[in-house]
Amino acid sequence: MSEVRTCRSQDGCGDAGTVTCLHLRLRSFEFFCCSCRLFPPSWARPGRIRGVYGPLSRVHVVGRKKPTQNSLPVPPQSWADQVERADQDPSSSALGDDDAPPGFEHQKPAASGLTDLTAAVANVGVSDAESKPTGPADPVGAADPVGPTEPVKVDSSMYSSATTFEELGLSKELLQGLYTEMKFERPSQIQAKTLPMILKVPHTSLIAQGHNGSGKTTCFTLAMLSRVDPALKAPQALCLCPTRELVVQNLGVLEKMGKYTGISLASTAELTTPGNRRRNVGEQVVVGTHGKLKDWISRRVLNIKSMKILVFDEADEMLKQDGFADDSVRLIKQLKQASPGLQILLFSATFNEDVKRFAQKIVPGANHVFIDKEDLSLDVIKQYKVVCPNPLSKTTVLKEMIFPQCEKLGQTIIFVRERQTARALHAAMEQDGHKCTSIEGGMEKEARDRVVREFRDGTTKILISTDVLSRGFDVTQVTLVVNYDVPTERDVTIPAYETYLHRIGRSGRFGRKGAAFNLVTGEAENRILNQIADYFKHEIPEVPWDDDEKFEEVLKAAGLTT
User: Fold this and answer.
1) Rounded Cα gap, residues 345 and 469, in angstroms
2) Is the dihedral of CA 33, 334, 302, 216 positive or negative?
3) What CATH number should be reported for the domain whose range is 130-371?
């Protein structure tokens, strides 16, 4: 039995009308959507599905005996994985319809796998008569192979740096917010370079990289507010963030900057009870995380038809293959279908080569501004290695070498790898009479908000955190960062280069001075830190773990004490 319905699969496409989904009811079982090709969570149970063939599939209901491995359909693979394979093997054969990116199955197949994937994104929401994306005169072509990225790729004849905010053609209300509430005097370097690219008509997409604390948040928040038509009472700007804390922070910047504009704001960080779900999001600017935004769009709570600009904050994190890549691609597809003229901004302090190539494929025709990795390590942040004889010695270093110095400094963030470590270290410090707080992803939202608020207010000076605060967290009084655990990828043997840069970048904001101590124990941790130093071509000198005079000396050399 088949019916035409809106897709209700978990994380489904939500298609109805423009792209009709064929659903086949399996008695009382859930639906299988042949548009987004998503299976319900129970698809692999006995008696569910055997065999999926082509775009309009026939689904065979089988008996209750357990199906064999060969009888089960293979879930579609991640698009990010396919792009990676295509880059590694350019001679690979064309990808079939079943291998299309999530949500792009109805695009026409192309001659090569890589071109197919790129063209699928580029042509979403564009008619046959408009096959080329709008953009600068010499964009990164969708069908062109993308090689190593250059630090800057823009047409210098089209754009010039802005020396004042008035040159950008901003409304008087936005200028008042910049000068009165944000206390800005003139654009920072990245703001002067990227804002003319963003605000110039026709509005072109941008992939931009800037140092930690350089003013990237102002770039995209100002861009969102400037694109909003105050007379249109509908969502027009959307910003995605990897963490709830970053959502709250960006919302606060928008509130201050847009104070005199009358523009309405909404975020997914609102505290709601299970019975008090959002019914309608009519605010003009929306900030949120993937999970909640996906829920709002699928339930038709968030109307995306009037969307003009889409921003990814910490974009490299949002495009990671093992993270949000597929969700990000699906969202771009949905918004470009609803609003073909959508402007997309990708901002982050770090873009490795894989993510750069991936970003250029999903946002073809965009301007891009990149920084060589050798220039990323911030000279204003003095970095040191502390080799501890055993794990217990790390706690001793904190108690006897670092905490006594914290009274003379601003604020300190101690980064750990695991939630359990954060809780245990906090308890150990409190037991010894050291006043500090901790935050990790397993805490309740109210508790996390309270910890962040107290740290921002200066009520607490020392904060222990997992990587939930490693990206984008902006507290100007932070002068010292301690990596209690060196940052690694999930298998704990590969250095997390980008995470390291984001962690130490919590200090030294906007050119202020800062320092970072890396506590290492054993050969493995020492090797990881040496690899990080080699990657950024930045020497990390060693400080003896039990020499308090040396600690005072390096902090004085860093300009943090007198």
Assistant:
1) 22
2) positive
3) 3.40.50.300
